Amino acid sequence: MEKRTLTLSLVIVAMGLGGCATKAFLVHEDRTAATGIEAGDGISIILGEHKACVQLVEECPAWVLSEGDEQQFESCLAEAMRAERPELAIVPANEFRQAAFPKFGFQDSPHSIEALMPLLKDAEHRQRMASMRLRYVVILKILTERMNSKWSFFAFVPTWGFSRGEERYSTLTAEILDLKEARISGKLQVNASGRTGFVVPVFLVIPLPPVPIFAMTETKACESLGKVTARFITYKGPASTEPNSLPHPNEDLVNCVVGGERRWTYQSKCD
Question: Which of 46, 233, 35, 42 is nearest to 131 (CA)?
Fold first, then answer.
């Protein structure tokens, strides 16, 4: 009976701290050109930027990009894209890089639309990409912020203890570059939020091992972004009539105060 009571108490505490792990997604879509893809055409996913901050600040330092980091998010996004559209052919980023930029290493190769666009005007680079039947490059940008960290005390007799939790926000942005048309097709942005931390329980007077609470915001946002990216690329209608466009197509999502509460929304809605 005591074991059952202890287990139930820990579950209640974990739910109270972590809530529903990831709360919600906000999707922002900015389509600047028509899309569509033919059978056999490929898509590559490259990591353009990865930032992480402990608190919300004006300048958030970017991490040094690594192939391991890129492969992790490439795998997540590609899996979600194929789950939504199984016919999509994903060309690994390292294969794209080796074929298109054989003289460049990972760090020296282009990781942004600004760096890639001028190369599309170069006949040699365009020929290399054309030989791969590569149609789109998806440039992925990641920003994760952690804030509002605090300690809390709890008591569910016969269990008591304390917990530390913080809010975690992840914003993933996909910029879509059409290699065939040498133009930017648009941008997609997904936000996920949740609480993360740990619980230190005490049963009567016996301290127990800490219980971690995870909010996998980057993973959840990546899965959601993969699905909308697949729909975005395979949509063949004109850009101006895209049915999934949101009311604020030219605004980015920001974390700001609205009505005295901090949350993710469009910039025009901030106080």
Answer: 42
Beta strands in 38-115 (DSSP E): 42-53, 89-90
Q: Which of 53, 102, 47 is nearest to 72 (CA)?
A: 47
Q: pLDDT category, 242, cuts 50, 70, 90?
A: very low
Give domain limits for the chain: 2-244
- The pLDDT value given to residue 84: 93
The helix-helix angle for 123-131 and 93-100 (nearest 10°) equals 140
For residue 18, the model assigns a pLDDT of 46
Kindly list the distances between the CA atom of residue 261 and the CA atoms of 169, 255, 258, 265, in Å, as whole numbers in the listed order.
Answer: 15, 10, 5, 11
pLDDT number for residue 250: 43
> Could you say which of 1.20.1070, 1.10.3470, 2.30.30, 3.40.50 is the CATH number of the domain covering 2-244?
3.40.50
Contact in structure between 135 and 178 (CB atoms under 8 Å) = yes
**Average pLDDT of the chain?**
78
More confident: 40 or 255: 40
Q: What sign for the dihedral angle of Cα 100, 104, 106, 110?
A: negative
Distances (CA, A) of 180 to 40, 68, 136, 177: 14, 28, 8, 9
Under 8 Å CB-to-CB from 76, ≥6 apart: which residues? 219, 222, 223, 226
